[in-house]
Amino acid sequence: MKYGFDVAQDVFELIHVLIVRNALTAGIYKFIRPGNSKQSDIVISVVGVNNDQIQQGIVNVKIHAPNKQTIYGLVPDREKMEEIQALVIPLLEDQYRSSFFTLIETPPALRQNANGDWFIKIVVDYYSIQNDYKNI
Description:
Elements (H helix, E strand, L loop, with lengths): L3 H12 L2 H6 L4 E3 L10 E9 L4 E11 L3 E3 L2 E3 L2 H15 L2 E2 L4 E12 L5 E12 L7
Parallel strand pairs: 1-2
Antiparallel strand pairs: 2-3, 3-8, 4-5, 6-7, 7-8
């Protein structure tokens, strides 16, 4: 059985590649983004994982970039987030590995936190077969 931490690690390993890391000003984090971060970074969180023979999980991948100041006030840096998104999408969509595979469930969407920061949210379906599954 895979736990949420295992699922987050699998997704982390898919996107923790040089080309993505070079596009970020900070890092790729599992579950928690550093407080008050004003950097370009990615946060991976697992919404849930079931315990069926074919395990299914839902993973959120959030791409953050600092807001830009304009004459209209703070606006999302869509260009930076879309640059990172273009690198991440192929690494998440239809990825088949020896112990799991991933699909993009929900296309990327621009969202805003309560604190006014913007991010792009990608919802990923995660599947894994439990070789040692016992339904007794």
